[in-house]
Write a structure and sequence with these properties.
The complex is a heterodimer of chains A (417) and B (435). Chain A is an alpha+beta fold. In chain A, 49% of the residues lie in helices and 17% in strands. Chain A has two domains: 3-46 and 285-414, no CATH class; 65-266, no CATH class. In chain A, helix 2 runs antiparallel to helix 7. In chain B, 47% of the residues are buried. Classes of the chains: A alpha+beta (417), B alpha+beta (435). Chains A and B meet through helix 2, strand 13 and helix 7 of A and helix 2, helix 10 and helix 13 of B.
Chain lengths: 417, 435
């Protein structure tokens, strides 16, 4: 089929051609970027925390009337209360293991600092940023972390201290990401490090494969996998415990937790959020991302629908306008399929022009978004996929009016207009 | 004339119902999406205390060590240390001032049908209530004397009053917080500033603090601090830092009634910083900022990026819908070239045709706009059902309602301009002949 007559014909419909091409270009630009954003959100939501998330839940509670001082006596009293809770939770029939903890990944409550290879460094001059988790010898097992080097904590490693006490532990376990950052040769186990600019040496005794920081905020993105576990029970007038229920017993264990803790010590407060499964923590943390992805998806679909409807409408108009010309072509020997192909080719041409402009707009929009928001460069694949989609959309939309055109009988040519 | 054009428009629109419906739907979807997101953006970037916010300032100083300081580039700290907060508070250089921080308290209601629960709380000095113009339903705030005496007094929100005391005048009643007895001195009326400008560390919107107690008392009782703690040097950690540790965790607000007072206060902050550096407490030359409420909100970028992104997306969507409508309208008008040719031949001027076609596109816009308004109401209802912290605030106000209509009408007239102009170019002779 020759393109020349087609282009000549399109010249007589400049406004319509420009409008369809523009609409396709804008749709392409918006849909590409929206799908890219959806992809990024989905990727973010699906990244593993490093925990075995099933059967895990968190208990957060506060004692009322507990000692508030920082003196050794108060600390030991609060520690005794915490150990009492731990023993009671461990004795539950549905529970596999329990650890005290200050936070969990995705919980967005974190204690952060820096680790250095030299003593007495300033905090911000440390060699690597890290978040701190505080737990006992059951921490690694309860969270379901994978120890890839060294050893786990034993009961002898575990100490306790008040919340405001800044002394550093003798031993820690770190994540592989943090270990590799500090010791690129992969020989972190047994090495000495200094936490938060302290002068006290701390030995790395083990490395776990992966453990995300509690914060999902972008400010923590630079050290999202740098975590340090200290074998320390933190003592304050509140505490939280990570509990692993026996397989399939999560709900049963969660249900009995609150009454049990009140039985151990009634002078405390637990509310509706105090016993929370990790699945809930995860869905809370990523709600906004999931919502944004869903919204983007809906808008993309409607946008494609509107564009398709626009193509159908304008092409239908052209078919009506060219009714007689089509009849003439048919009378001169053109087959039905020739007429069909004519409109399909015409649409491909317009959509092609729109797609070329759209690619430029899509990349431009991406650059603009990168300037104003935290956004990565969009891979070319998205743009190419977008081009294929809009071309297919055009072909799909044009099919029905084009078929109607091909059904125009040749006899139309003989009738007076 | 207008009535006649209106009648013509209705007839013409009725003739091709599918096309008309498509145009109306496209405009409605575009308007609905953009008004939903624009309303959310409007609500989120609003002034939390209209009329008052201009004279409320948030002093920032920089007590850190000299390391890492780039003159003119490093921002001062976002919060205050205990020592600086107390010094500035006691200096009383502003018209009003208050030092505060957020927390959470365990509430044990006397009412036995209610289980104990946590309540977000604010620990503040007495200046908070007069400075922010907090309205009281019953009673009043506390004064300096209660601050100094570390008194066990509390101000509660009306929501909290309803929950714990079943409403009514609860002043004088006893409230058990963290196991201690507090006397209720005031019940706040309808007051819930959004964004939660005075402390953006926990939630920026819809914080709903239920209990206010004196800062001094909260420290005596070791009430839990909730918010961000930022330490430097060899600072400690923990959620409630030691009062002498190099950590910032308090918010300090001042009221300065005139620009000259604000300038003088900034001067005072510079002098204070210089004096503290001389004393060896601060490691940096004076690095201060004094932002008013709106500047502070702007600096903190409280409006979530996602909301801005959604608004941009919605307007892109509206643009596509408009281009779509222009195309369809063009097709529709050009199809009626014959009819328009007859009108021209009978003496109608080009401008008369133009006006007639614009009326037609205006009708489409009006109907589309109403559809869009309906969709925006549904959209906002959906937003309110989202779990986002700002969700309950998403309501259409009269200003946005007006903007919706103007946007719809403007958009459809704009969409009608090009097609109407093109259609007016018909040559009557040609049209009459061919038909």
């Amino acid at each position: 089929m020759k393109l020349h007559p087609m282009i000549a014909a399109l010249r007589r419909h400049k406004a319509g051609v420009v409008l369809i091409a523009l609409q396709i270009a804008l749709t392409l630009a918006i849909v590409c970027n929206a799908v890219f954003i959806i992809g990024q959100r989905v990727q973010r939501v699906n990244r593993p925390t490093g925990l075995d998330e099933q059967n895990l839940y968190l208990v957060t509670q506060q004692w009322v009337g507990a000692p508030t001082g920082d003196d050794a006596d108060s600390i030991q009293k609060m520690d005794a209360m915490q150990r009492e809770d731990l023993a009671a939770l461990r004795a539950m029939p549905d529970v596999a293991s329990v650890t005290p903890t200050n936070s969990l990944p995705l919980l967005n409550q974190s204690s952060n600092g820096a680790m250095s290879l030299a003593a007495d460094a300033k905090l911000l001059d440390g060699n690597a940023r890290t978040t701190y988790y505080f737990g006992d010898e059951n921490f690694v097992r309860t969270l379901g972390l994978h120890l890839v080097a060294g050893r786990d904590f034993n009961a002898g490693d575990v100490t306790n201290k008040g919340f405001r006490n800044t002394s550093e532990p003798a031993v820690v376990i770190v994540t592989k990401a943090l270990a590799d950052k500090l010791f690129p040769k992969g020989d972190a186990v047994g090495k000495i490090v200094y936490l938060d600019g302290s002068g006290t040496p701390t030995t790395i005794i083990g490395v776990v494969e992966r453990l995300q920081v509690p914060s999902t905020g972008s400010w923590a993105g630079t050290f999202a996998w740098n975590a340090t576990i200290e074998p320390v029970r933190l003592n304050g007038n509140f505490s939280s415990y990570a509990v692993r229920a026996k397989p399939g017993r999560l709900l049963a264990a969660m249900k009995t937790t609150t009454p049990l803790l009140y039985k151990v010590n009634p002078l405390r407060v637990l509310d509706d959020d105090s016993v929370k499964s990790f699945a809930d923590i995860r869905s809370d943390a990523y709600r906004a991302d999931v919502g944004m992805a869903a919204l983007m998806g809906v808008i993309c679909l409607i946008l494609l629908g509107v564009t398709a409807a626009g193509i159908v409408g304008l092409t239908s108009f052209w078919v009506g306008q060219r009714h007689r010309q089509i009849g003439v072509r048919r009378a001169l020997g053109a087959r039905k399929v020739d007429i069909l192909h004519y409109f399909q080719m015409e649409n491909l041409l317009i959509a092609g022009i729109g797609a070329v402009v759209g690619v430029a707009l899509a990349i431009g929009l991406n650059l603009l978004l990168m300037q104003h928001y935290e956004m990565d460069r969009m891979p070319v694949l998205y743009v190419l996929a977008g081009v294929v989609v809009v071309l297919l959309l055009g072909q799909g939309a044009v099919f029905s009016p084009a078929r109607r055109a091909s059904n125009v009988p040749p006899v139309v040519a003989t009738r007076a207009a | 004339m207008f009535g006649y054009y209106f009648d013509l428009a209705l007839r013409s629109l009725k003739r091709n119902k599918a096309l008309t419906a498509l145009m109306v739907l496209a405009i409605a979807l575009g308007i609905g999406a953009s008004m939903t997101t624009l309303t959310v953006l409007h609500v989120l970037s609003g002034d939390p205390l209209p009329g008052r916010s201009g004279s409320l300032y948030y002093p920032q100083i920089d007590p850190r060590e000299s390391q890492g300081y780039l003159p003119g580039k490093t921002d001062p700290m976002d919060q205050m240390t205990w020592i600086d907060g107390m010094n500035l508070l006691q200096a009383k250089r502003a018209d009003q001032q208050a030092l505060m921080t957020g927390g959470s308290v365990a509430v044990q209601p006397d009412n036995s049908t209610l289980d104990p629960f946590y309540q977000t709380a604010r620990y503040t000095t007495s200046g908070f209530f007069p400075m922010f113009g907090v309205p009281f339903e019953y009673g009043h705030g506390w004064g300096d004397a209660e601050d100094d005496a570390h008194a066990r007094v509390a101000v509660i929100s009306s929501q909290f009053n309803d929950k714990v005391f079943g409403g009514g005048d609860s002043t004088g009643k006893t409230l058990r917080l963290d196991g201690e007895a507090f006397r209720v001195v005031g019940v706040i009326g309808d007051w819930n500033p959004n964004p939660h400008f005075y402390d953006l560390n926990r939630k920026s919107y819809n914080e709903n603090e239920g209990v206010f107690v004196p800062l001094s008392t909260s420290q005596d009782l070791g009430m839990i601090h909730d918010g961000s703690v930022n330490c430097w040097g060899n600072g400690g950690g923990g959620n409630t830092p030691d009062h002498n540790s190099p950590c910032v965790w308090l918010q300090f607000w001042v009221q300065l009634d005139s620009p000259s007072k604000a300038a003088a206060y900034k001067e005072f902050l510079v002098n204070y910083s210089a004096q503290q550096k001389a004393l060896g407490r601060f490691g940096r030359p004076p690095n201060v900022q004094l932002r008013n409420v709106m500047q502070w909100l702007d600096y903190n970028m409280v409006v979530p990026d996602d909301v801005r992104l959604q608004t941009g997306l919605a307007f892109g969507f509206l643009l596509v819908c408009l281009v779509n409508t222009v195309g369809l309208m063009l097709a529709k008008f050009l199809r009626r070239a014959g009819e328009l040719g007859v009108r021209r031949a009978l003496g109608a001027s080009r401008s008369a045709l133009f006006a007639q076609l614009l009326v037609e596109s205006g009708v489409v816009g009006l109907v589309g706009g109403m559809g869009g308004l309906l969709l925006a109401l549904i959209g906002l209802w959906l937003v309110r059902r989202q779990p986002a912290e700002y969700a309950p605030l998403a309501h259409l106000d009269p200003v946005m309602l007006l903007i919706t209509f103007l946007l719809a009408l403007g958009a459809s007239l704009l969409a009608g301009l090009l097609p109407a102009w093109r259609a007016c170019q018909v040559t009557p002779a040609l049209q009459l002949k061919s038909n």
